[in-house]
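[Target chain]
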Amino acid sequence: MSKAKTRYICSNCGATASGWMGKCPECNSWDTMTEEVISGKGGSVVSKEMAGDKPIPTLLSEISMETDMRVQVGDPELERVLGGGVVPGSVILMAGEPGAGKSTLLLQMAANPGLRMLYISGEESATQIKMRAHRLGIKGEHCHILAETDLTRVIDAIMNIQAGIVVIDSIQTIYSPDLESVPGSVSQIRECSYRLQQLSKQTGITIILVGHITKEGDIAGPKLMEHIVDVVLHLEGDRQYNFRLLRCVKNRFGSTREIGIYEMKGMGLVPVENPSEWLIPADHNHRASGSCISLVCEGFRPFLIETQALVSTAVYGTAQRSTSGYDVRRLHLMLAVLEKRCGFFFGNQDVFLNVAGGLKVTEPAIDLALAVALVSSLQDIPVPRDICFAGEVGLSGEIRPVQQLDKRIAEATRLGYKKIYIPASGQLDIPKSNTTVVQVKLLRDLFELVFG
């Protein structure tokens, strides 16, 4: 039996070396060389059986297309994001900040009596998992629990139980005895992810991996892990709010534009069927300057959010610019457009923007509502609460079109808004309803219509 060979790979650039070095010779990064075991067999060795079994390609026209048999997990929001359910034999990676609710969301699947599940935890004991399940009201009659970090024992448990879905919380805690590196290193994560992916494809068992994220918001570990898995999910949310968003970054079996919306309660993560009513406060009829309603789309899902702006005289020297849930660089652009194209001066004013509900909105359709909120606060003129806005603001002061205007109009009509301001579009088919749709081309025209 040949002795296993090792090599060292830079976790930053992927450069290889035969021995450990403190500094990578390629990218000059310090302490990034990690060890991994390579096979002692040469790549050119081919057995007689393999030589005789030659692969035969199949014509594309002769391949039968079968409908994916998806498994229902009992969570409508998760099923929406996945494209209708879990595909057997797929590998799913779920990432998110600590405390976002990843473990809670996955453990809630055990409440489905028709789902046989194996929950493997490398961070908590079986007693701790039982305490969480008791708090969530989950009996778990078809859910097996295992607290283990050894990859060999984990694979043995998966083969013995033969559950439909296996949850591994988390992949950073699992280690392979064949490697000498510590758990959580690049080589360990890559090796464990690859072996679990091969096991999933061979047995048809769905494996869900929980991944940690770095300070920059990226998934910890090698980028190769995201290419190995079939689906990559991100659970986002602020600890100060009970709102959680489940986004799909990669999906080989469906669209990546769907999102799931949850509310964190004492009984776990509860799906939110109507986010617009949840985000708009109950006293939304109260009129105050600097506040208006925006129609945004997260994926294919439209909902209304409240945008707030506060403009006050800068009495402490340099004017401040602060945002919450909105890009501050986009705010600087908005202020420049309002001053250059519309004649509103913010140079000696402190400007504060806030997207209510703790959301972080990157869609450009929120620009129109924020521009109206800024002018409303500057002039101290309240905006009527029965109107909403959707549109992107260009550098020349024009209102640019946004996607899915028909869905936005339908959402505003369903919630009873009397008027919606949208970009001018000649190809838009507006249905008849009690909501008046106003198409505007320039910001100047919009301010005249809103403020008189």
Remarks:
- The longest strand covers residues 301-313.
- Residues 76-272 form a domain with the Rossmann fold fold (CATH 3.40.50.300).
- Residues 95 and 211 are 5 Å apart (CA to CA).
- The chain has three domains: 1-40, 76-272, 278-451.
